Amino acid sequence: MLRVAGPLAEVDEGGVTREVRVAPRLPGGPPVAGDRVTLDDSGTQGIIRGISPRRTVLERVGSGGRVRAVVANADLLVVVAAVAEPPLVPRLIDRYAVAAVAGGLDLAVVLTKADRPHDVHAVAEVVGRQRAAGHRVVVGSAFDPGLVGEVRGLIGDHLAVLAGHSGVGKSTLTTALTGVQRATGAVSERLRSGRHTTTDPRLIPMPGGGAVIDTAGVRSFWLPPMTSQDIASGFPDIAAAAPMCRFPDCRHMGDAGCAVEGSVDAERLASYRALVEAADSAARFARGRD
Q: Is-above-0.85 flag for pTM?
């Protein structure tokens, strides 16, 4: 699946792009970029009748509080953030890291706009924390062939999804990696009219192998319902210290005998606790609606 826009979609069949329709009330649907689907060609236009089980999935909470898939079957989530303009928000990276682990994706971080004026020490601290957590981090400019080459090396022959705030250079990086302008790439007028093209995640192959899915910029990224254990899994440094806690069900929220406090970077622990508090609040709200 290359792209979905309402009732229409683009699929790849042996290297040939084809426009098809999405069957109403599709089991397991709606489909998303990266899905493997089953087509029914008995009519005048192919119709998607089935979605194969997803190997990985990136999910978020959308409008109305419903959990929805963003992309499927990607191998790597590349969080793209700017060191300035817009400001760097480390906790957004942490949210994506939790979502990546929950969905079975690896994580890498690309920090762009390093050629702009920025707080070098603050950025170095963020880079250090992310690398200490085991994440691959690349810093540079989306217009720099050197950074593009590093990102290309991270992706290899896999499928990667690029995600992050608006204005950080995701589309610029996608164009440099694929040679395809996201906003002006070939798309039929029927598909274009289905939904604004810049909001639809789109799978684009890279020359020489591999592919990227460029997602629309976000203002925030809300996680699906999760337990504190699920959230801790997205913080490798916290997960590594957790077995040393006195109690196996320790939530690392100031619990007695917690080994995480004091052994994990304070900002990382604060970010984890903020996510747990948000998950707890969401759970209480959901129970109140039942």
A: yes
What is the CATH number for 64? Answer: 3.40.50.300
The boundaries of the domain holding residue 153 are 57-214
Say what angle helices 145-155 and 170-178 make with each other, to 10 degrees.
80
Residue 234 covered by a domain: yes
Residue 221 placed within a domain? no
14-62 per-position pLDDT tens digit: 889 999 999 998 988 899 999 999 999 987 889 999 999 999 999 999 8
Burial of residue 69 (CB within 10 Å: 0-12, 13-18, 19+) is: buried
Is residue 166 situated within a structural domain? yes
Residue 64 has a pLDDT of: 74
Same domain for 245 and 263 = yes
Q: Please, which pLDDT band fits residue 289 given cuts at 50, 70 and 90?
A: low
Domain-embedded: residue 108: yes
Q: Which residues contact 12 (CB under 8 A, 6 or more apart)?
A: 1, 2, 18, 203
